[in-house]
């Protein structure tokens, strides 16, 4: 008889608590056993639940929309065009950071006027393409960038819609490598420099100063830094308005973290309340630009154990996925919960397993896990919360394949990015002609 067993208590605000469940012993995503996908596409692979993507957007926009806040998905978290389309069909806007991401968002059917262009190093060509496409807003991060936006807009006979990205000097209390608004950060413009820059820019017909933006970091679980940053932004808006400036929009950034490792995850109602408390009622058009929160939990990466060998304190399981496929553990010491696709052979106290990949780097190490039971070659493992910054950050280091991405919807699945192997990679290395230089 079929029996559904929840694997772990659903974290607070989990948009799709039954996204992964075990039925008849098999780990399934929606109605599809993950082993079935492994048979179809081989391992390793990424799988995303369309239902969880949709439910995530609905939950977040449902929490913030009553406070007049629009949601723009940060494309960098998962830029697969079919993932973007799931959000686009629901009316979600997009936050992009490159011409490539703009092309993806437009191709996914997102209207240009729903797209915000963030990023500290936009090139002149990217700025030109953004203005030609008619994007909603360009978030400018330096006086030098503002000059390039002005020059391109003048050349095109446009008035570019510009928000200044502010560095409010707030510690996001997250991993140092994903903290973006401390005084020494490369992002944004120091809050003290904004009034003069905004006032000067507002005088220029080629610049349409629409407002301000802020983004303090990523995987933020303690919401207090959001309150500090947005309160500072509210103060800045008041100061600018008192000085006679028009400030119509405020982009509150992304950064909302997802739970795991014993943390239940932030409370959406509290997040929305902080927005209302700090910047509500000011007549501002508000938006947030979350990446991770909308897609991390919708995805898993599935890998196969190639070999096991005894280790010091933990047995090694060498899996066929590596840091090139999922680099978050190597880069940020991130931990992704792991579920075996079949029930563990032995429950209770077994030797812990250290899951490592085949790459010739000691940092190719996903961490040490209890409770997986003794693993054997051929065993399949699902790394959870891999829908954000997984495939999007992958590479072909060690001449490894780019692994397939699969979208699950109900009882069906389909490949949404096929495996890119060495044959195709070698094609890219066809030499061009020698060019004389002097
Ligand atoms: C400007 C900007 N907006 C939004 C995001 C999305 O961040 P997260 O995925 O943590 O929500 C990022 C990445 O940190 C970013 O740099
Ligand atoms: N890529 C990071 C987050 C940084 C987001 C971009 N500023 C992660 O996987 O957690």
TrEMBL record:
<dbReference type="InterPro" id="IPR022657">
    <property type="entry name" value="De-COase2_CS"/>
</dbReference>
<feature type="binding site">
    <location>
        <position position="389"/>
    </location>
    <ligand>
        <name>substrate</name>
    </ligand>
</feature>
<feature type="binding site">
    <location>
        <begin position="289"/>
        <end position="292"/>
    </location>
    <ligand>
        <name>pyridoxal 5'-phosphate</name>
    </ligand>
</feature>
<keyword id="KW-0210">Decarboxylase</keyword>
<comment type="similarity">
    <text>Belongs to the Orn/Lys/Arg decarboxylase class-II family. LysA subfamily.</text>
</comment>
<keyword id="KW-0456">Lyase</keyword>
<feature type="binding site">
    <location>
        <position position="328"/>
    </location>
    <ligand>
        <name>substrate</name>
    </ligand>
</feature>
<dbReference type="InterPro" id="IPR022644">
    <property type="entry name" value="De-COase2_N"/>
</dbReference>
<feature type="binding site">
    <location>
        <position position="361"/>
    </location>
    <ligand>
        <name>substrate</name>
    </ligand>
</feature>
<comment type="subunit">
    <text>Homodimer.</text>
</comment>
<dbReference type="InterPro" id="IPR002986">
    <property type="entry name" value="DAP_deCOOHase_LysA"/>
</dbReference>
<feature type="binding site">
    <location>
        <position position="389"/>
    </location>
    <ligand>
        <name>pyridoxal 5'-phosphate</name>
    </ligand>
</feature>
<protein>
    <recommendedName>
        <fullName>Diaminopimelate decarboxylase</fullName>
        <ecNumber>4.1.1.20</ecNumber>
    </recommendedName>
</protein>
<feature type="modified residue" description="N6-(pyridoxal phosphate)lysine">
    <location>
        <position position="76"/>
    </location>
</feature>
<comment type="function">
    <text>Specifically catalyzes the decarboxylation of meso-diaminopimelate (meso-DAP) to L-lysine.</text>
</comment>
<feature type="domain" description="Orn/DAP/Arg decarboxylase 2 N-terminal">
    <location>
        <begin position="68"/>
        <end position="296"/>
    </location>
</feature>
<dbReference type="InterPro" id="IPR029066">
    <property type="entry name" value="PLP-binding_barrel"/>
</dbReference>
<dbReference type="InterPro" id="IPR000183">
    <property type="entry name" value="Orn/DAP/Arg_de-COase"/>
</dbReference>
<dbReference type="InterPro" id="IPR009006">
    <property type="entry name" value="Ala_racemase/Decarboxylase_C"/>
</dbReference>
<keyword id="KW-0663">Pyridoxal phosphate</keyword>
<feature type="binding site">
    <location>
        <position position="332"/>
    </location>
    <ligand>
        <name>substrate</name>
    </ligand>
</feature>
<comment type="pathway">
    <text>Amino-acid biosynthesis; L-lysine biosynthesis via DAP pathway; L-lysine from DL-2,6-diaminopimelate: step 1/1.</text>
</comment>
<feature type="binding site">
    <location>
        <position position="255"/>
    </location>
    <ligand>
        <name>pyridoxal 5'-phosphate</name>
    </ligand>
</feature>
<feature type="binding site">
    <location>
        <position position="292"/>
    </location>
    <ligand>
        <name>substrate</name>
    </ligand>
</feature>
<dbReference type="Pfam" id="PF02784">
    <property type="entry name" value="Orn_Arg_deC_N"/>
</dbReference>
<keyword id="KW-0028">Amino-acid biosynthesis</keyword>
<keyword id="KW-0457">Lysine biosynthesis</keyword>
């Amino acid at each position: 008889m079929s029996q559904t067993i929840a694997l772990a208590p659903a974290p607070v605000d989990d948009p799709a608590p039954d996204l992964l469940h075990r039925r008849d012993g098999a780990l399934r995503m929606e109605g599809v056993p993950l082993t079935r996908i492994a048979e179809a596409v081989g391992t390793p692979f990424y799988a995303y639940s369309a239902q969880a993507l949709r439910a995530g957007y609905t939950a977040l926009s449902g929490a913030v929309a009553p406070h007049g806040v629009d949601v723009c998905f940060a494309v960098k978290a998962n830029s697969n065009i079919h993932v973007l389309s799931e959000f686009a069909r629901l009316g979600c806007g997009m936050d992009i950071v490159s011409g490539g991401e703009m092309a993806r968002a437009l191709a996914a059917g997102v209207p240009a006027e729903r797209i915000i262009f963030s990023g500290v190093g936009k090139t002149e060509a990217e700025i030109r393409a953004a203005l030609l496409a008619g994007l909603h807003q360009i978030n400018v991060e330096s006086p030098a960038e503002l000059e390039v936006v002005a020059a391109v807009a003048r050349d095109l006979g446009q008035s570019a819609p510009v928000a200044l990205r502010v560095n409010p000097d707030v510690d996001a209390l997250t991993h140092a490598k994903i903290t973006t608004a401390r005084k020494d950060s490369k992002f944004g413009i120091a809050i003290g420099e904004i009034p003069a820059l905004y006032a000067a820019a507002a005088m220029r017909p080629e610049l349409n100063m629409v407002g301000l933006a802020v983004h303090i970091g990523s995987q933020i679980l303690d919401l207090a830094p959001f309150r500090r940053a947005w309160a500072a932004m509210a103060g800045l808006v008041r100061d600018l308005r008192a000085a006679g400036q028009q400030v119509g929009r405020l982009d509150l950034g992304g950064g909302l973290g997802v739970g795991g490792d014993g943390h239940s995850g932030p409370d959406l109602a509290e997040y929305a309340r902080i927005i209302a408390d700090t910047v509500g009622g000011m007549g501002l058009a508000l938006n947030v630009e979350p990446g991770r929160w909308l897609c991390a939990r919708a995805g898993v990466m599935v890998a196969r154990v190639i070999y096991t060998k005894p280790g010091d304190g933990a047995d090694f399981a060498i899996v066929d996925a590596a840091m090139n496929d999922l680099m978050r553990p190597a880069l940020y010491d991130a931990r992704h919960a792991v579920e075996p696709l079949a029930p563990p052979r032995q429950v209770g106290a077994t030797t812990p397993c250290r899951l490592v990949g085949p790459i010739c780097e000691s940092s190719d190490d996903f961490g040490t896990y209890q409770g997986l039971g003794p693993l054997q070659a051929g065993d399949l493992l699902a790394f959870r919360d891999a829908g954000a910054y997984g495939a999007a950050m992958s590479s072909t280091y060690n001449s490894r394949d780019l692994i397939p991405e699969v979208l699950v919807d109900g009882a069906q699945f389909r490949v949404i990015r096929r495996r890119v192997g060495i044959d195709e990679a070698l094609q890219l290395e066809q030499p061009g002609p020698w060019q004389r230089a002097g």
